[in-house]
Design goal:
3-stranded mixed β-sheet; 3-stranded antiparallel β-sheet; 2 helices
């Protein structure tokens, strides 16, 4: 397991447990944790899910699943105005090849929702 996924997942699990306690949810009531992760985070979904299982074991969130949606990198070029998805980590405009771009999406790590029974 990579330390990268473990450290990211730890913050997610801490938040999940905090929310479960805040709303007085009993052990076994959490079915899934849904998160959005930007592609720039470069996570390996299987390792993130493994880390989630390890970190939730023996907690009130034990037995729940981690549902991951990977969000693509979206950039806007300040030089030509192009806006869209890019598949490269090197952020440059695919239209004019300018490096004067801003990233609109791709670095997120957000807890989208908790699905409970």
């Amino acid at each position: 397991m990579l330390m990268h996924e473990l450290s990211l997942c730890k913050s997610i699990v801490d938040t999940v447990l905090e929310q479960m306690k805040k709303h007085d949810l009993p052990r076994g009531s959490l079915l899934s944790t849904k998160i959005n992760v930007g592609a720039m985070r470069q996570i390996v979904s299987e390792q993130m899910q493994f880390a989630y299982g390890v970190l939730t074991k023996n907690t009130i969130a034990a037995g729940s699943e981690l549902d991951i949606t990977v969000l693509p990198v979206i950039i806007k070029c300040n030089a030509c105005g192009w806006k869209g998805q890019t598949d490269t980590i090197m952020a440059y405009c695919p239209e004019c090849f300018s490096i004067d771009v801003i990233m609109l999406q791709g670095k997120e790590l957000t807890l989208e929702k908790l699905e409970v029974r």
